[in-house]
Design a protein that fits this description.
Layout: H1 3-13, E1 21-26, E2 32-38, H2 41-50, H3 56-64, E3 67-72, H4 76-90, E4 97-98, E5 106-109, E6 117-120, E7 129-131, H5 137-150, H6 162-166, H7 174-177, H8 191-206, H9 210-225, H10 229-249, E8 259-266, E9 270-279, E10 282-292, H11 299-313, E11 320-322, E12 335-337, H12 342-369, H13 371-386, E13 394-403, E14 406-416, E15 419-420, E16 426-429, H14 438-456, E17 463-467, H15 470-482, E18 490-495, E19 500-503, E20 506-510, H16 517-551, H17 558-568, H18 571-575, H19 579-586, H20 588-598
Parallel strand pairs: 8-11, 11-12, 13-17, 17-18
Antiparallel strand pairs: 1-2, 1-3, 4-10, 5-6, 5-7, 8-9, 9-10, 13-14, 14-15, 14-16, 18-19, 19-20
């Protein structure tokens, strides 16, 4: 956009009214690229051209604006509604995108002379009533089963027009014989009575159970007064069915009615709004809407958009809305509450818990589908938990192993992107330390490792993990300072007893959740370094034991013993060898000495 074009647009913006409304940005192809709402159109749109935007996408949006159009409305609520409609209709490039690609089940009461009730995933605008959406088919079928047991609603697809009924075109079927239908197809059940059953079914689906209870109790009493006890018992059974259904869905005080509850969660890319509808103390609708962010939208903007959308989808006319925070917009004749204590607060927390679980489950599922996303999520989690400067793609872990200072060795294991990279594992014999001194041993191997890495120009790790507490960590950190690597490589220590994590120059340890993915990776590193070090230590001890057994033979030194072990692998094999076989490796004289030592009876 040229400077002249920008000036023309800004002159146009200055003419905008200071009223609530919506604004539309168009590009050069006259295509809507963004729709926004505002309490004050002039102030909001002007901000796009005066502010310095931190979000790069917003800067790109502003450069693409060629025309601006606006619509003034009477209230903030009207602005919200109009914005929602236009975004759904035009799906502008820079507006949040609805990610509700799931088709949830609904329960339909078909617009027919004798309506059918069934669950469906497709809404047809033919005058039928739809209830839901339901988060699972199981829930929808459970409610349908309750209605079926209470009222014998037909499930056939016969066209029961007056003309067809009068012509006696249909015959009752097996459903009538087993008591699941009252055969309106043969006019065995009056249309008015069938209509009463449908109204009661609608009340159940709406969560308003009181009228249904009244109807059933009145009918039971009427049958009892006429001494029709069998009929009265049927109504009593239906009341019990409805009582059981109510007890399972009751989550709060029955005094709470006509409430909408919204919770909000977000990650870097998406916003998640969970919704509960409360009627007569029961959650009658649960729904979650996911939106994809485009311009780093505020949580208030995302929540307000979703409130309008969800209330429209779920046909809500609730007079009170419970929110986790105020959105800055008012709805006419609707009370908005951010509860701090009490039962409403508990309901909001329940709604939030469900929304949070969905968000975590979605992230987990995406990670499973994409190993790259799983790896990235794990590294980002570790970076956040350990307060690291860089993502820990490359981690190296050190562990010392010795018994009372004998055969001291050390191991270094390497993890790349959270997984073992065994070809890069390294073992160290401790050379300069005598006796059991873990601190000095750690200092030696860390210096040997990174002096060599620096001299050979090899890649340095993003993170070093020391198996040990503050002492071992301090020894390793002093080496990094000496080599000029302080700040270039981050280093932590993990103590075994309480899984304490220590940081250089920080005496206070960090404790991670025992189920934390970060802690599990660190434990895997520590355990792998210990396993690798112990294996090496056992080899050294075994070598010493076998070589010392041969060294006891008069005239056989360590070099000869090592030569024999290298060739024949074990003392047990050497004991069974003939003089001729030994001569081929160590000569006649030494062979005779070994035969004489292990087999004195032959001499």
């Amino acid at each position: 956009m040229s400077r002249e074009d920008t000036k023309l647009l800004y002159d146009e913006v200055k003419k905008l009214p200071a009223n609530p409304g919506i604004y539309q940005f168009f590009d050069k192809e006259d295509k809507i690229i963004y729709v926004g709402k505002a309490k004050n159109l002039k102030k909001r749109v002007t901000s796009y051209f005066l502010k310095t935007h931190n979000n790069r996408k917003t800067e790109i949006l502003v450069r693409q604006i060629d025309k601006i159009r606006h619509v003034v409305v009477d209230s903030e609520e009207d602005a919200l509604l109009l914005e929602n409609n236009l975004i759904k209709k035009y799906q502008p490039k820079y507006n949040i995108l609805l990610k509700d690609d799931k088709t949830f089940p609904w329960i339909c009461i078909k617009n027919e002379p004798f309506p059918r009730i069934f669950y469906t995933r497709k809404i047809i605008k033919d005058g039928s009533n739809y209830y839901g959406p339901y988060t699972s088919v199981y829930m929808a079928k459970t409610i349908l089963d309750v209605i079926k047991r209470l009222f014998q609603i037909r499930n056939c697809k016969l066209v029961l027009t007056d003309a067809n009924l009068q012509s006696k075109k249909f015959k009752k079927c097996l459903e009538f014989q087993i008591g699941n239908c009252k055969a309106p197809c043969e006019l065995l059940y009056a249309k008015s009575n069938y209509g009463t059953d449908i109204q009661n079914a609608k009340a159940i689906l709406s969560g308003t159970l009181a009228p249904v209870f009244n109807f059933l109790k009145t009918s039971m009493q009427f049958a009892a007064d006429k001494y029709d006890f069998e009929r009265a018992d049927e109504y009593k059974s239906k009341i019990q069915i409805l009582e059981n259904y109510k007890s399972k869905s009751l989550v709060c005080s029955s005094a709470m009615t006509n409430l909408d509850i919204f919770s909000f969660h977000e990650d870097e890319k998406n916003g998640y709004v969970n919704y509960f509808r409360i009627v007569d103390g029961s959650i009658v609708t649960s729904y979650l809407l996911e939106v994809k962010k485009k311009l780093n939208e505020s949580k208030e903007d995302i929540l307000s958009f979703c409130i309008v959308e969800i209330r429209k989808i779920c046909n809500s006319a609730s007079s009170e809305i419970i929110l986790p925070f105020l959105i800055g917009y008012d709805f006419s004749n609707i009370k908005m509450t951010v509860p701090q204590i009490g039962e409403k607060k508990k309901l909001l927390e329940l709604c939030e818990r469900n929304g949070r679980l969905f968000m975590l489950e979605r992230a987990k599922n995406e990670s499973v589908k994409s190993p790259v996303l799983k790896k990235q999520r794990l590294l980002e989690k570790m970076q956040k938990d350990l307060n690291l400067t860089n993502l820990p793609h490359h981690i190296e872990c050190f562990d010392n192993s010795n018994i009372s200072g004998d055969f001291p060795v050390s191991s270094c294991v390497v993890f790349i992107d959270g997984k073992p990279f065994k070809s890069q594992y390294r073992r160290f014999n401790i050379k300069s330390v005598e006796g059991p001194n873990d601190f000095a041993s750690m200092e030696e191997v860390v210096e040997r490792r990174y002096s060599r890495q620096l001299s050979e120009g090899n890649q340095l790790p993003d993170l070093i993990v020391i198996d040990g507490g503050k002492g071992q960590l301090s020894s390793a950190f002093s080496v990094l300072q000496k080599l000029g690597l302080e700040g270039r490589i981050q280093i932590i220590g993990i103590a075994k007893r309480l899984e304490e994590l220590y940081f250089a120059n920080d005496p206070i340890p960090l404790y991670l959740d025992k189920k934390s993915e970060t802690l599990k990776v660190l434990q895997h590193l520590r355990d792998e370094a210990h396993r690798f070090g112990i294996t090496f230590h056992r080899v050294k001890r075994a070598e010493n034991f076998t070589s010392s057994a041969l060294s006891e033979v008069a005239g056989i030194g360590n070099k000869t013993a090592e030569k024999l072990l290298s060739h024949f692998k074990s003392v047990e094999i050497i004991k069974k060898l003939s003089k001729e076989e030994l001569e081929k490796v160590i000569g006649k004289d030494k062979s005779e000495k070994i035969i004489a030592y292990f087999h004195p009876d032959k001499h």
